[in-house]
Amino acid sequence: xxxxxxxxxxxxxxxxxxxxxxxxxxxxxxxxxxxxxxxxxxxxxxxxxxxxxxxxxxxxxxxxxxxxxxxxxxxxxxxxxxxxxxxxxxxxxxxxx
Length: 97
Hints:
Blueprint: E1 12-21, E2 40-48, E3 54-60, E4 63-74, E5 86-92
Antiparallel strand pairs: 1-4, 2-5, 3-4
């Protein structure tokens, strides 16, 4: 689900891509260090109800880059329901020792 809170000095958030690391546990952030980089991998079956074109590029076995064609989300769009949703399937790869 994609949404926003208040936006200081603006009225909308524009998203062009979201890089998803399948091995990071929420809350997601820039400081994620994967426990087992090959444990989960993007398997496909991607769908969305976003009002813009979304393409999917696997950047590595455990990272997927969802590229949005300038998705604009108005300020104060609550989650749930959010502005739109993306759905996909992961598979379990090799597990650590």
